[in-house]
Amino acid sequence: MSRIANAPVSLPRGVEASISTSQISVKGGKGTLDLMLHSLVGVDLDGEQVKVSARDNSREAGALAGTFRSLINNMVVGVSEGFQKKLELQGIGYRAKASGQSINLSVGYSHPIDYKLPEGITAETPSQTEIVISGTDKQKVGQVAAEIRNFRPPEPYKGKGIRYADERVYRKEAKKK
What we know:
With 177 residues, the chain is of the alpha+beta class. It has two helices and 13 strands.
């Protein structure tokens, strides 16, 4: 069985969890998140802790128990603190501007790219070359950051492109004559 599933998820102050037969709902200061449960995973609410267990001794049930424990922990952290990803634009003339529920990107194409943000995700541009994506759902925040990065991934020769703030791009040497 997964050792991760053995550790209970503690609920901080201001976060409530409710469990129905096939769904868990976590409510906090930043919003509410829901998760459909698998039939091989059992979830119990014990005071201020959520305990995840496998319903049988199969290998799949143990793996799913660890996965669902991590997903529930991400939900608790999301509704209490939230998640954010930072992107940097490297390159001459590369700019980003957040306005409402969209981001306008100028990243070297003949036309600007207007990216619509999904519901529950917000974006800020502290400067023209920085984008901060934030939200309560860790998977959505990561997916939006990956989609924006995919418009112009960093290239290894000049280092131009959209990269994560903590990403290290390995540079290649140009071709010799």
